[in-house]
From TrEMBL:
Pfam families tied to this protein: ParBc_2
Protein's recorded name: Chromosome partitioning protein ParB
Native species: Bradyrhizobium erythrophlei
Length: 212
């Protein structure tokens, strides 16, 4: 089984990509859209846009149906789609095309290439995972976790779906309405929670270490 990253230089339609998670943080998607528009405005040539996409290839696993299953950068793919970009370049990090269809999601789960949790942080059946990037639901706690990392609440980590783990931690401590009504205040509270010992088990935790 190949696990080396193999770029596919032939563009893949974004609408054909299959998600491996159920949610995204739409606030984060919109921030990415804003940065994309700023880049497009500064670099109007087709060549420059092509170079950007070449630097932001989406990692995928090739499934038994020859479809491309996205294992990271769901937010970027959604943002590009919302900005009317039709195709994207992908990097194959795993080939599971030989796996029987009935066993596919179990193998993906074992390799931690799938995160079937809904907007309440509850695990769902694999069949509930959306079939398209466009059908991913908004989880404001995922946006909160993403912003928390950017402001230094925790360090970037290689643990798969690490920001979802932080999102679930924050979900247990804060109300969704509070996050949606006052995001800035929610970030302040999230920063305090992130530095506490309650979060010590989470990937990238960088709270104060006691000398005791």
């Amino acid at each position: 089984m190949a696990n080396t990253r193999e770029p596919i230089l032939q563009p893949i339609p974004i609408t054909s990509l299959r998600p491996t998670q159920m949610t995204v943080g739409m606030r984060e998607v919109n921030e990415k859209r804003k940065r994309l528009r700023e880049y497009w405005d500064t670099h109007k040539s087709t060549k420059k846009r092509g170079e950007f996409l070449g630097r932001h290839m989406v990692p995928v696993v090739l499934g038994p149906d020859q479809r491309h299953y996205v294992v990271d950068h769901h937010h970027l793919a959604r943002a590009l789609h919302e900005e009317k970009v039709e195709d994207i370049l992908v990097t194959v990090i795993g080939d599971l095309s030989m796996v029987e269809r009935d066993a596919f999601w179990g193998v993906m789960d074992n390799k931690r290439w799938v995160y079937p949790y809904d907007t309440k942080g509850e695990r769902r059946h694999f069949r509930d995972i959306p079939k398209s990037i466009t059908a991913l639901k908004d989880d404001p706690f995922r946006s909160l976790a993403g912003e928390l990392r950017r402001v230094g609440g925790f360090a970037k980590d290689t643990t798969p779906f690490s920001e979802f783990l932080w999102a679930d931690f924050l979900r247990r401590q804060m109300s969704r309405k509070g996050v949606e009504d006052n995001f800035d205040k929610a970030i302040e509270k999230a920063l305090a929670l992130a530095k506490s010992k309650d979060a010590v088990y989470l990937p990238g935790w960088c709270g104060a270490v006691s000398d005791d």
